[in-house]
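ESCALATION

Customer reports they have been waiting on this structure for their group meeting. Please prioritize. Original submission:
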Amino acid sequence: MLLLVCVIGLWVWAATADDRAEGEARADLRSDAETRREKLVEAGADGELDDSEIARVFPRGKPAKGLLRIERHGQDVIVTAELLGVGPGALLPSQTLVTGCFAFTVTPKERGHQGPEVTLRELAVENEPQSACTAAGVPSPSISASR
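Update from on-call: job pushed to the front of the queue and completed.
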């Protein structure tokens, strides 16, 4: 009986390994996006945020494309980037990669604030056909396993 419980437990653990790996990769993706948001706050702390500062926050890396678009609307800057999340693989020597497209809206600092306000929004590529991610040919948020 104990052997049957162990076999069923192992089967359930193996059957849910992909979901756990994807969950960890998505958590890493969200953490990376938050880190980039904080770096944008630091880069704009002097009251200016030029394209080279933005490019340093979002370097290109495979399979994520990094910086995709910078838009300026008056004082506000909207940065669109594709980022990468990494999680463990379902099998030991592999890893799970998740990409996502994010828009960072940077609003200059106002009196009394230490730095600019940066809001972060994950773009759903299928629902936002005019986003920079779609225009740049970025596929829908994807999951891949690499070895």
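Sent to customer with the following note: The first helix runs from residue 2 to 15.
Escalation resolved.
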